[in-house]
């Protein structure tokens, strides 16, 4: 099933309504996201609302790669309907890879949690998938820091940050992951992963200084 740009646009409208209705997003640097053409948003991941928060605050509709375990019951058709991509993290999921590259080939926005799963949200451990998509497609990467989503004080609902609390979403400068050679060897991808990790880590540190988080 090809991810629908129209579906992602619907998802963005839903995200805007939910995120701004339940919390107080403060969005910084959204102008750094290219207005057109393929782009990859690389997002730190410390809370379940990080994906929906970005869908509701990014200036363009986003297709996220989401673990297949989230596609259960009625949530599965809903996520597919709003243009999200199911990925099996236990193996090289060729279908998900093809669909993600298709989003970029059509000039869309691909959202990736490069840490692979929720953790400290500090970009300390990156999977090679982000480097592969960036080098293979040539799409620039925009680092995104979501800060405050894991706030534990004052929660009314377990597992969610306090309702109406502020969540900062900080977009960084777009950059190219490859070295310009177009190489896709394991060595080239490993080198790209190191470059990406350095850029993402630096952006997160800048975002924390900027927001006082």
UniProtKB/TrEMBL annotation:
Query: Phospholipid/glycerol acyltransferase domain spans which residues?
Result: 39-149
Q: SMART domains from the entry?
A: PlsC
Q: Which GO molecular-function terms appear in the entry?
A: 1-acylglycerol-3-phosphate O-acyltransferase activity
Question: Quick check: keyword Transferase in the entry?
Answer: yes
Q: Give the keywords, sorted.
A: Acyltransferase, Transferase
InterPro entries, sorted: Plipid/glycerol_acylTrfase
Q: Name one GO cellular component term.
A: plasma membrane
Chain segments annotated as transmembrane: none
Keyword Nuclease (UniProt): no
Q: Which domain of life is it from?
A: Bacteria
Record GO biological process: phosphatidic acid biosynthetic process
Q: Matching PANTHER family, A to Z? A: 1-ACYL-SN-GLYCEROL-3-PHOSPHATE ACYLTRANSFERASE
Q: What is this protein called?
A: 1-acyl-sn-glycerol-3-phosphate acyltransferase
Its lineage reads:
Bacteria, Bacillati, Actinomycetota, Actinomycetes, Streptosporangiales
């Amino acid at each position: 099933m090809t991810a629908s740009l129209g579906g992602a646009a619907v998802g963005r409208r839903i995200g805007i309504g939910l995120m701004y209705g339940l919390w107080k997003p403060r969005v910084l640097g959204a102008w750094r996201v290219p207005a057109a053409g393929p782009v990859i948003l690389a997002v730190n991941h410390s809370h379940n609302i990080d994906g929906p928060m970005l869908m509701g605050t990014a200036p363009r509709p986003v297709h996220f790669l989401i673990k297949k375990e989230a596609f259960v019951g009625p949530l599965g058709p809903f996520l597919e309907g709003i243009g999200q991509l199911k990925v099996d993290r236990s193996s090289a999921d060729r279908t998900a890879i093809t669909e993600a590259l298709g989003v970029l080939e059509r000039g869309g926005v691909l959202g990736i949690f490069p840490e692979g799963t929720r953790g400290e949200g500090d970009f300390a451990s990156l999977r090679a998938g982000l480097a592969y998509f960036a080098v293979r497609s040539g799409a620039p990467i925009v680092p995104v820091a979501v800060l405050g989503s894991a706030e534990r004080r004052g929660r009314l609902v377990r597992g969610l940050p306090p309702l109406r609390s502020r969540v900062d979403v900080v977009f960084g400068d777009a950059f190219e992951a490859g070295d310009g050679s177009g190489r896709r060897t394991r060595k080239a991808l490993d080198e790209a992963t190191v470059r990406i990790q350095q850029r993402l880590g630096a952006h997160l540190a800048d975002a924390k200084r900027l927001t006082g988080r």
